[in-house]
Structure formats: C-alpha cells, structure tokens
Amino acid sequence: MWILNFLPDWIFHAALVLGVLAIVISMFLQQFPLIKRYQTPLWLLGLILCIAGVWYSGGIAKDREYQQRISDLQVQIAQAEKRAAEANARVEYVYRDRVEVVEKIRYKVISAIRESSNALDANCQVIPEAVDILNQSARPQTQESQ
Amino acid sequence: MKIIPVILVCVALAGCVTTPVDRNFPDVPPALQKTCPELLTVPQGTTRFSDVLTIVTENYALYNECRALNQAWQQWYSEQRTIFESVQ
Questions:
Q1: Cβ-Cβ contacts under 8 Å, B65 against chain A
Q2: For residue A45, what are the contacts with CB-CB under 8 A and spacing of at least 6?
Q3: A99 and B68 in contact (C-beta within 8 Å)?
Q4: Using one digit for the tens of pLDDT, what is the confidence trace for A8-60?
C-alpha cells in the first residue's frame, strides 16, 4: 500500500479508535437536543474512520509480513550465494586437478614413446593410407566429411 | 465527479504490493567456458610409427581434458541448481 509509505502507522490505528469513539458518542447525541442534528454525520464519519482504520491496519500487518518475508528471503539468498561461490571454487579446483593429472600422464607417455622410438620404428613402417584413414576420424565431423 | 474515478483507482491500487527480491542464476566460471579443441592430425608423409603414436597420445589427452571439462560442467550445473532451488 503506497499510502503507508507517506503516513506513520499510528495515524491509522488512531483513525480506528476515533471511528469507534465517534460511533459510540453519536449514540448518545440524541439526548442533547442542541447537537442532536450531528448524530448521523458523526455516525457516518465514525463508520468511515472505522472502515479506513481496519483496512489500513490490515494493510500494515500484511506489509510487515511481507517485509519479514523479504528479509528472510534476502538472508537465504545471501547464504545461497555464498554456497554457490564455494561450489564454484570447488568445481574449478577439481577440474584443474583432473587436467593436471591428464597432462602428467600425457608427458609420461610421450617421454616413454621418445625413449622407445628406435625400437618402435625398427619393425614398423607406416604407409600413407594408414595416415589418411587415421586422420579421417580426427578431423571435425560434419555431414560433408561422411 | 472527475475525482470519483481517481479515488476508486487509488483505492483499487491500495492493495498492490511488490516483493523486491532479485535473484539470478550464477554465471559459469571462466575456466569452464572454453570449448574443446580440435583433434590433431598426423602430418602427411609420416612414416615413423612413434610419430603416429605421439599424435594418438596427444589426441587421447585432448579427449580426457574435454571429458574433465564436461564432467566439471555437469557437476557445476547440478550443484548450482540444487543451491538455487533451495531458496524458497
């Protein structure tokens, strides 16, 4: 309720109290001939103030409920963002660790190939057709390459 | 008379409330945003078996790195989604 942003809460509670008082007082005005004519307007005014007071009192309570809900959500979101950042760091660390392991194995195997290259090449000659066949599977796979 | 519709609109809008809580799904870490590279090909005219074996080993390493990236992506999305949905 936008009007709650401009007026303090006590005004609406006071309006409700004044409305009740106006209605009660209007019931006794009939006994005073001089001011009897103000009975109906006072009663109407009291009714309007009561309705407005109840309406906005309910609005104040609902607004407080929403504000509490917003605060709770913001706390949850802050905690979730913290956990998300921790998860990010953890996933990145595991990924880099795995890549490091792959690199170590790659280096180890290639070193072994180089050490044994003479023995490997002594009895095995690769023909061009073998290179073409192997490269077919290594190239990017598209409809045209089939 | 013109004031009546204005009053009615004000009364109608009196119950409107917005809940200003902004949430965004987290961004992917830069390390996981890279694409898998293309596989290496054996140069034409290669006759040494050790050279072919080296290229094959390099390609196995590229695949394993790409596999690690894929696993990291799946793990990242799974964890982040669980965290995102835990806020009710």
A1: 99, 102
A2: A19, A22
A3: yes
A4: 888 888 999 999 999 999 988 878 888 888 888 999 999 999 999 999 889 88
Q: CB distance B49–A120 less than 8 Å?
A: yes
CB contact under 8 A, B80 and A84: yes
Q: Which of B59, B57, B52, B56 is nearest to B36 (CA)?
A: B59
Confirm or reject contact between A94 and chain B (CB < 8 A): yes
Report chain A residues whose CB lies below 8 A from the CB of B36.
none
- Which pair of tokens denotes residue B74? 């799946």
Classified as helix, coil or strand, B48 is strand
CA distance B40 to chain A (A): 7
Contact A130 B16 (CB under 8 A): no
Do the Cβ atoms of A109 and B57 come closer than 8 Å?
yes
Token look-up 């007026």 returns A7
Q: Which residues 45-64 of A have a C-beta within 8 angstroms of B?
A: 55, 59, 62-63
Q: What is the pLDDT of residues A53-105, one digit of tens each?
A: 999 889 889 888 998 999 999 999 999 999 999 999 999 999 999 999 999 99
- Could you say which of A74, A127, A140 has the minimum Cβ distance to residue B38? A140
The CA-atom distances, in angstroms, between A130 and each of A135, A137, B43 are 9, 12, 12
Q: What is the pLDDT of residue A83?
A: 94
Which of A56, A16, A8, A52 lies closest to B15, judged by CA?
Answer: A56
